[in-house]
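During the no-cost extension, the postdoctoral fellow (Dr. R.K.) reprocessed legacy sequence entries with the updated structure-token encoder. One reprocessed record is reproduced below for audit purposes.
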Amino acid sequence: MRKKRDPRIYTRLTHPLVRDSRDEPFRQAGWDEALSRAAAGLRAARGAFGLFSCARATNEMNYVAQKFARVVMGTNNVDSCNRTCHAPSVAGLSAAFGSGGGTSSYAEVEETDLVVMWGSNARFAHPIFFQHVLKGIRNGARMYAVDPRRTSTAEWAEGWLGLNVGTDIPMAHAIGREIIHAGLVNHAFVRRATSGFEQYERLVEPWTLSLAEKVTGVPASAIRELAHAYARAERAQLCWTLGITEHHNGTDNVRALINLSLLTGHVGRHGSGLQPLRGQNNVQGGGDMGAIPNRLPGFQDILDPDARTKFESAWDTVIEPHYGLNLTEMFEAMEEGTLKAVYCIGENPAQSEADSEQAVRRLRALDFLVVQDIFLTRTAELADVVLPATAGWAETEGTTTNSERRVQRVRAAVTPPGEAREDIDILRDLAARLGHEWRYADSEAVWNELRSLSPDHYGMTYARLEEEQGIQWPCPDPARLEPTYLHGRLWADDPAMRGRRAPFGLVRHDPPVDLTDETYPIRLTTGRRLDSYNTGVQSGGFASPLRRGEYVELCPEDAESYGVVVGEEVRVSSRRGSVLAPVWVDTALRPGLAFMTMHFPDDVDTNRLTIEANCPIAGTAEFKASAIRIDKLPVATVRS
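Re-encoded structure tokens follow.
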């Protein structure tokens, strides 16, 4: 019988930790010693340094963190877990509209006529947003779900399109072709607001409904039904999550969906828009604050000399006039030996990166690693110096930005334990040891510096954020609120007011890199469950009536074919590694498709199986499409 494993409870960090050599264990240290050691290690690595910022910390922390990288360390090598999930959304939306945020508010989902959930089990992964979807359905909206699994979200849908993993572009192109052939294109919008329609029309022409059925596995009639429903709707919301972005061609997937909104005019109007659903409380804000390698705060391009001059004047520094390395490229640079030190704030890449054994090996190869966190994570266990920080959602003052671009105040509710300190205070003291005196009285002082440099945030004072209970960017005027949706300019009668046209994305089908074959015949896709959070560091130590630990989920037909039953432990192998996992049988899956999560890596390290095949534009790995095999163990055991 397989024994039930108690979840690992991660230790809350209350005092700084240092180690005198890589071979020795941590010892407790005072703040002065820990910061001096951190400063010495980072000073020695100037020119070969990278910073990982935190999508769960405040906007203010992310602003100061990216400033630390650019001013103190002289590099644009700064990124966050945005790279792991929604970087393709930012890249795709930016390419189309010049802005990387979702185009609509949550309230608009309640007032729309059609909702398309594409590659998104929002009921589990984004339950707050899904409450707005349910209100929309109660108000008369129709919903379609496009997902390889018949998820909990799909149970609420009028139609479920269960496509094969990695065939989103053929599906989107077939929908686009059907809209064109059925005469449902919004030609007035296409003429006034877009470019590249003729090339797009030629691109999608081969993708007939019958060809799409063969490639995607979805009946032609279902594809046609969705095409007509989306094009004929007065207002429609197209929503997606990691089922679209976590592919080696994630940015192309996003562009393919945006094309459908351009064809039909479902963008730039109240109730019609594009919603990339973010999974962490401030992953949108981290990018907005410049904690990415290609943008300064306020999503201002580093290659823009005027933007650089503004920040250089405010910060009394010189900003490198080129993009830095993103998270994926930083890990590759560790392998090459050109990135020698990392300052990791609130991230756990040792367990969250694809091909986790490779990620750990690369982190171990660093000359110096500083981790600033609230728990002693697997990544922190690899560090030379560990700095205890406050929890951004309960022990810190500041702001965060959610998926609908809404900036909201967060307040300290409890006192941090032991000697844990505010992230901003730690960054400020470390900067001082490296020759930069930053005098921020509090988080509001940081926010006001950001406001002075970011037109999109200028109108958001702390007082106004409290009064309005949150404000969506852009908000350039302290006396006015902008519409809740973006890109209304595209509907302006005056061409000068319309500005830059939105180009159609000319993207082509590119199947998953990790092909299935006789040796690895099962397609593994990964995702989230309602009861758990990311790598389980924060949620794994708490009981939940929904939690059953990690399983490899198979359809009934595959379980029968392999001769396995629920609870039986099997070996799951990919071309990169293998894990032992008990079986769960789920009727939401189809033959040849398996599902696992990353929530319990201390029990079953799913990311040993995933492939580091990265989107060349956004750097996001193909977590959603690995090839695996299932091996029955010699003596079957059943979980008790």
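DSSP finds 23 helices and 27 strands in the chain. The two ends are 6 Å apart (CA to CA). The remaining legacy entries will be reprocessed before the final report is submitted.
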